[in-house]
Every structure is written in C-alpha cells, then in structure tokens.
C-alpha cells in the first residue's frame, strides 16, 4: 500500500521542479518546445530509475565519505548510455537537446533522490520513487514547454494551432518567458494545493537589516538599550 | 478645553493626494497628446483611449479578483495607459497594445502589490515586453502626416536609425517618425516645466539624465549639433521627464536621483552607440529601476543632528 504512495508523491505533492524547485536549469533551458520536454523528461526518468536501482543495491558498499563521487560515476554511466542511444535512434531529439543531455549527470533531482531516498531504502521503493519523480519532472517540462510553444510560436508539438491573424509572442521562447511561465505554473500549483503563502511580517522581510525601525528589530534593540 | 485632542504626527497635512498628482501628470501629458494627433492623426488618439480604458479595466478586474480595495479612482492606471500608448508606434494593432496594458497593470503592478509596491515602471516594462514579442510591428514607424496621403501608410525609420541626420527643427517640433508621444520634444518640455513648476516632479533626474546623454553624445557624435540631435530624438525626453521621475521606482534622495539619472544616461548612450538596437532609453530606465533600492541604501541621508558614524565603530 505504501508502494503506491512512493510513486504518486512525485507527480504533484513533492513534484521535483514545481514544489521542490530542483532541476531548474533544464526546466528553463529546453522547454521552448513541448517535444523537447518529452525527450528530456523521459531521458531523465530512465537515468533516475536506473541510478536509483544501482545506488539502492550498493548502499552498503559505498563508503559514506566518497558517496557523492560514487553517485556521479553511476549516473554518468547511464547518461552516456542514454545519449548514445538517442544519437543512434532519435537524432532529432538528440540535436535539439544538445549539451543539456550530458548535463543530466549533474541534475540535482537525480543526485537529490540518490542522497535522500535511494541510499536509505530498498530496491522496489527506490524504483517507484524514481519513476514517480521522473514522470513528475516530465509532466512539468511538457506543461511549461506546451505553454511556451503555444504562446511563443503558435504551435503545439509542431502543429500550428494559433489562428493566423494573431501574432505569436516571441517573448515566450526567450529566456525571460521561461522564467515567467515557470513562475506562473508554480503559483498555480501552490494555489491548487492550497499552500498558504509565507506570512508577511518582519521576520520574513528581505529589508530587515537595512530597516531603521518600526518593526521587531526596533523592539529588540529597544530592549537592549 | 474639552476639544483638546492628542494625536500622533504628522500634524500638518498638505492636501496633496495621489489622485491630484496623477491628474497633474495627465494634464502635463496633454500637450504631447495634442501634438501626436496633429502629427499622426486620429489613430493616435484612439490608441491612447484604448490603452487608458484597458488599463483601468484590468486594474479594476484584478483588484476585484484579488479581493483588494478598488484603486481605479487614483487615476494611476490612466497615467500608465497614456504613457504606454505614447511608447507605441501608431500603426500597432490594437490587440497588441491591450496585451501591453495587461503586462503593465496585472503583471508588473498588481502582482507585486499595486501602486507604490512595483519595482519597475509598468509602462516601460509593458513596452519592452511588446518590443521583444512583436519586434517587427514595434519598429515600423509611420511617416508623419501619413493620414493625409489617401490612407496609405508610408513607413520611415526613426531619426536614430536613419542614415541622413534629421533637421533639428523637425526633431524639436516632432515631425519625424517615431512612437506616438515621443517625437514632439517641445510638447514634452512644456509638460515637464509644468510638473516642475507645481512641484510634482523634481527636476534633478531629468536634468542629470538628459545632461549625461548630451555630454557623452558630444564625444560619440563629435559635434555639438549631433549632441543636440541626440537629446531631441528617440524616447529620451518622454523617458527622462515622465518615466524616470516615477515615485515608486526611483531613488528618494536628491543624491540618489542624480546617480539614477547619470546611470540612465550612460546606459542609453552605450546602447545607442554600441548596441544592436537603435534606442535604449526604456532599457536604461528599467535597469536603473532595479538598481534603485541599492542606490537608496548607499545614499541614506544623515539624520538631523546625528553625529557622523565612525568607520568600524559599530559593535
């Protein structure tokens, strides 16, 4: 019964890029098209599942002090495998993902799951965890990619859907549009999950160091003087 | 004696409200509006009205959805709409202008908490978003008085991008290609002098902004005449007088405003001279908007009567 939970938590509740804000670099960089999102997401899922299996199996053998290099070696092995396979069978996706494919090696989602989950759990939960997290990541990439592709170039998976009299907004496929769409998607997810926004007060105020008075700081200083 | 009331400061109220300030800015923009209708025809007026209306509607709907008090009566949305329209070419399709209004009011202003909380100038950001999104539409300038030639739109380049230098009188009276409200330097100066005279804006920022561009342009163009042309062309007058003086997004102290103006001027000249775009006023103001909190932090004035703080004396 808890196996199902390991799988579903990655989809929305602990979604790696929308809730935990991991793996921002590929999320912002390759999501100019929805198809890129699918390619990147599925490659990452594959690497994540495989590395979770191996790390979970080797968790007693890997010495604690060198565990990060060991994880990276394992992940890099699978990334090399994926990129060679894509180059051979799906050259279009390989060329559009470019160097971000090799950068899966240092994707913080994979390292994060290895450190937080696979190194502490058995093989089957680790597989389900990797699968859920990977699909959650794919979901985010496809969502952000679809929004950017529809508004930015008037297409979805390469099919033109925007009527001709409307001009697509180039901004959405520029980096600034990526930040904007991701921010809106994260806000929407928070809203759906009914997460309360951080309380606005002096303890959360970014200017509290430069703030001359009025709030908590004044109270504290007033007490000391 | 029973009428004696104790209340906290301030005890003297000047009667200046946001609404009055915004109304005087609208009045100050009117000469430029009249000039633009004279130069670019009725479509300039329609564009301005559409921008103002959609800004007010977006503000009203947004405040309603966010369950906040309604603020459309402070007229700040009308000013934003007017400034945004002045930054658009007259031939731009109307729906694009409405997208710009949406960005300015909803994203830049209301997402950050409404009037006074926005970190960037709404109209400038709306213009930049449109510029990046619809570049070809945003850089198509209609020939002045095009509406007299049987409705056919003849396009021209702005004086900044054209090969032949424009006549100074053309630049001063605004009979050149450009955005709706930016071409007529005379009308903008009238508005600016009016605002300074009734003490709505301080002349520090515009003077340091325009002055920096003037001095640096003497070097980049190599002649006094070129420098005069540089300060009269493009969106410099509009930006320096009406946008670099926005209260919420610029430094508070006079010293900070001088730094702000010089920074704007420097970035403008750098973009005009070395950048791939012909005009850099909007980008320079946006960049300096982001730096404003930092400038404010470094120019905190000494408290009245306080001793100078010693270096490292703080425990």
What does this structure look like?
- The complex is a heterodimer of chains A (225) and B (315).
- Chain A has 225 residues and is mainly alpha-helical.
- Chain A has helices spanning 2-8, 24-29, 34-57, 67-89, 91-97, 108-118, 123-153, 175-192, 216-224; strands at residues 155-156, 159-160.
- A two-stranded antiparallel ribbon of chain A has the order 1-2.
- In chain A, β1 (155-156) and β2 (159-160) form a beta hairpin.
- In chain A, α3 (34-57) runs antiparallel to α7, α4 crosses α6 (108-118) and α7 packs across α8 (175-192).
- The longest helix of chain A has 31 residues, at 123-153.
- The radius of gyration of chain A is 21 Å and the shape is globular.
- Mean pLDDT of chain A is 83; it is low at 217-225.
- Chain B has one domain (18-298): Ammonium transporter fold (Orthogonal Bundle), CATH 1.10.3430.
- In chain B, strands 1-2 form a two-stranded antiparallel ribbon.
- Chain B is globular and about 75 Å long.
- Chain B is built from 13 helices and two strands, in the order ααααααββααααααα.
Give a nutshell description of this structure.
The complex is a heterodimer of chains A (225) and B (315). Chain A has 225 residues and is mostly helical. Chain A has helices spanning 2-8, 24-29, 34-57, 67-89, 91-97, 108-118, 123-153, 175-192, 216-224; strands spanning 155-156, 159-160.
């Amino acid at each position: 019964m808890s196996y199902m939970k390991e799988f579903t938590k990655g989809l929305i509740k602990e979604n790696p890029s929308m809730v935990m804000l991991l793996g921002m670099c590929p999320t912002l960089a390759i999501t100019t098209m929805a198809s890129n999102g699918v390619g990147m997401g599925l490659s990452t899922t594959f690497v994540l599942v495989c590395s979770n299996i191996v790390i979970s199996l080797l968790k007693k053998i890997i010495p604690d002090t060198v565990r990060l290099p060991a994880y990276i070696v394992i992940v890099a092995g699978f990334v090399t495998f994926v990129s060679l396979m894509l180059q051979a069978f799906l050259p279009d996706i390989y060329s559009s993902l470019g160097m971000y494919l090799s950068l899966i090696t240092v994707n913080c989602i994979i390292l994060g799951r290895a450190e937080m989950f696979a190194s502490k759990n058995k093989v089957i939960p680790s597989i389900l965890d990797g699968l859920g997290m990977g699909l959650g990541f794919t979901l985010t990439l496809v969502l952000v990619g679809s929004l950017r592709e529809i508004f930015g170039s008037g297409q979805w998976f390469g099919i033109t859907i925007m009527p001709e009299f409307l001009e697509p907004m180039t901004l959405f496929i520029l980096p600034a549009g990526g930040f904007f769409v991701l921010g809106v998607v994260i806000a929407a997810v928070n809203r759906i999950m009914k997460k309360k926004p951080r309380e606005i007060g002096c303890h959360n105020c970014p200017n509290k160091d430069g703030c001359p008075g009025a709030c908590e700081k004044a109270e504290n200083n007033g007490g000391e003087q | 004696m029973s009428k004696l009331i104790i209340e906290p400061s301030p005890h003297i109220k000047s009667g200046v409200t946001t609404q009055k300030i915004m109304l005087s800015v609208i009045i100050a923009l009117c000469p430029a509006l009249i000039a633009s209708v004279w130069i670019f025809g009725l479509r300039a007026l329609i564009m301005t009205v559409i921008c103002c209306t959609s800004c007010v509607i977006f503000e009203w709907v947004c405040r309603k959805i966010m369950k906040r008090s309604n603020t459309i009566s402070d007229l700040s949305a009308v000013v934003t709409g007017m400034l945004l329209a002045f930054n658009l070419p007259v031939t731009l399709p109307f729906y694009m202008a409405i997208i710009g209004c949406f960005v300015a009011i909803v994203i830049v202003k209301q997402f950050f908490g409404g009037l006074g909380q926005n970190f960037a100038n709404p109209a400038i950001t709306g213009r930049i978003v449109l510029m990046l999104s619809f570049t070809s539409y945003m850089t198509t300038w209609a020939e002045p008085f095009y509406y007299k030639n049987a409705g056919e739109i003849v396009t021209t380049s702005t004086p900044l991008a054209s090969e032949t230098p424009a006549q100074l009188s053309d630049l001063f009276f605004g009979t050149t290609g450009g955005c709706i409200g930016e071409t007529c330097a005379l009308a903008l100066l009238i508005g600016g002098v009016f605002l300074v005279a009734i003490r709505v804006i301080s002349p520090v920022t515009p003077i340091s902004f325009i002055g920096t561009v003037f001095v640096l342009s003497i070097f980049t163009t190599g002649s006094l005449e070129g420098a005069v042309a540089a300060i009269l062309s493009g969106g410099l007058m509009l930006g320096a007088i009406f946008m670099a003086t926005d209260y919420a997004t610029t430094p508070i102290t006079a010293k900070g405003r001088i730094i702000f103006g010089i920074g704007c001027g420097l970035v403008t000249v750098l973009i005009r001279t070395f950048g791939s775009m012909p005009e850099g006023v909007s980008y320079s103001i946006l960049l300096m908007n982001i730096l404003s909190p930092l400038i404010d932090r470094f120019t905190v004035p000494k408290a009245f009567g306080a001793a100078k703080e010693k270096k490292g004396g703080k425990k």
